[in-house]
Amino acid sequence: MARASIIIPTFDRPHLLSRAVESARAAAEDVEIIVIDDASVNETSSLCRELTGIKYIRLEHNQGVAGARNVGILASTSEYIAFLDDDDLRLPGSLDVQSDALDANPDVGFVCGAMLMADQNYSLTGDISAPAHASGDRFWELLELDFPVMPLSVLIRKECFTKVGLLNNRLGGIDDWDILVRIAELYPVMVQDEPIGIYRKPTSVSGQGSSSQAKQLFQALSHQLQLFRLPRVQAATPSKRSRVRRRTINRVADTLLWNAPALFHDRAFNSAAANVLTALRLNPWRAFRPRALRKLDQVLVKSRRESLVTH
Amino acid sequence: MSVTSIIVTTHNRPHLLVRAIESARLAGSDIEIIVVDDASLDQTQTICRTLPDIKYVRLERNQRVAGARNVGLLVSSGEFVSFLDDDDVRLPGSLDEQVRILEANSQAGLVYGQAIVKDESSEEVYPLDCLHGDVFWRLVTQNFIPCGSAVFRRSCLDRVGLLDSYLAGLDDWDLWIRIASLFPIVALEKPVMIWKRSSPVSGQGSSQAASIVSRAVQQFRTRWMKLPRAVAAKVEVRQKAWQQFSANMAAHLAWETMRSLDHRNFVQAARNTIEVAQLGPMAVARVAARRRLF
User: Fold this and answer.
1) Looking at chain A, which residue has its C-alpha nearest residue B166?
2) Do residues B42 and B120 share a domain?
3) Whole-model pTM over 0.90
C-alpha cells in the first residue's frame, strides 16, 4: 500500500492536468494519485478516464478547492496527504523524501520544503521560495504570515485531521493556510531544504491567485481574528496578541505595496490600485517611512531593468 | 469490513452519550460505531475509553457538529453511513431494516425513516407521510428527513461532497438536498429513532431558530437554487419552491415564537419575529391562508 496520497483538485483545465498527474506519478515509487474533478463542464472527465493508475472522483456539484480536497482526503487510503494544484508540478522523488521524514519523526504534523518558481510555460525563473524558519514549533510564525508555505511543498500526516478537523470549505484560497496553522498549533513542523515542487507563478492577468492578492490577504487578515480563538492564542498575554496582530497587518501592508509596482508594470492597474488602497487602509503611515520609500525605489528600479531586458 | 458506520458526535454530554451508543449497538447486526468527541472538556473521554467495540476519535479543537461528522466520515469504513446525535436514540433492529431497503434499491442514495419526536409534554411521529422517489423539489422547501433516521451510501459523497462545516444546524439538510438532486430517496414508513426536541431555554440547536432560518434563506438562494438541477429547471418551478420554502420557514418561526413566549424567552421571540419580517409579507400571508384552511 502506498505511504502517501497526492490529491489533485481540478476544474476545467484538462490541458494542464495530465502534466501534473505525470509529475505526481514520478514523485514516489508507490503513490496513490487522487484526482478530484470539481464538476468541470468541459472534457476533463473524458481525459481523466483515459489516465491509468489514478483514482478519479467526479463531483457533480462544485465544492470549491477546499471541499474538493476534503473529498480527496476521505477517499485516500494512505497515511500521508499531499495536495497538488492542477497547474503545479511535483519533483521526482520528492514525495519519498518527505514520507521518509514523517516516518522518522512520528510526532511531526507536517513536513515542508522549498519550491522552484516558474512562469506560465513552466520554465524556471531561477527564484526559489524556501521556508525562512527551522524545524520545530512554528505556530506563531505561521499565524503571523511570517512562514509562507504553500500546499505544493507540504506533506501532512492524515492523523492530524482527526485532531483538528478537515479543511474549512468556506475559505477558498486561504484554506491551506488555515489548516496548517491549526495543525501547527498542536504539532511540531519539520522543515527541509530540498526543493519539492515547481510552482507556476500566476501572472497578474491570468485570473489566478495573485490577481486578487489584495482581496486574499485582506481575507487572511479577517480570518486571523477567527484563528485568535484557538486555545494557544487565548492563553497568550493580550500584549502578545496585539503584537502578533500589528506585525501581521504591517507585513501584509508591506507585501501589497512592494507588489504594486510590478502589477502597475504589467498594466494590471486595477490590481495595483487595489494593493495600494488596501495597504493604505491597513496602515496609512506604513507607506511613508523612509525605509519603505527606499525599498519601493529599489523595486521600481528592478522592474525597470527587467523590462529593458525583456523588450 | 462492517457494512454500516454509525457516526455519533458528542460534546460534553457523557450522561446521554452512553444511551445513544447502546441504542446504536442494538440497531444493526453488522455495524461499526464511531464516536467523535468534539473536544469535550468533561469526563467524556474517560467514559468512552471504557466502552467496548467502538472507534473513539477525539478532536482536540472544537469543530461543531458538521466538522465533527466530517471527521467521523474520514475514519469510517462502512459502505453505508448514518449519523446519530448524542441525545438521540435508535430503535432496535431499525438500521438492519433500512440497510436491507437500500440494498434492494440499488439506484437509491438514501433511506430515511420516521422519528418519534419527544417534547417535555407530548410525543408525535414525524414525518407523517414519507415522501420517496425524486424528492428534490419537496426537500428544498422543508427538511422532512430527521437527521438520525437517514442512512446513505458512502459513494454518494464522491458525487456531492462532504458536509458544509459552516452550516451549523443545517448541514444535514444541505447534504440531503445535494444527495436528492442526483439520487432517488427511499423511506421506511415506521419509527426508527427517538428524537428529543430541545426546549427554547436549553441552549441547544433549535433555540437559535432565527439565525438558522436566516442561514437557510441564504443557502436556498446562493447554493440550492444554483445546483445544476435547479438551474436547468423553469423559472416558475424555482419560484414555486421559494414560495413554499418561505412559507414553511415563516410557519416554523411562528411556531418557535409561540414556544419562546411559553417559556417567557422574549428576546428569542423578538428575534424570530424580525426574521419573519425578512421573509417577506407574502410568506406571512401564505402561512395565514394555510392556517385558515386547516
Assistant:
1) A170
2) yes
3) yes
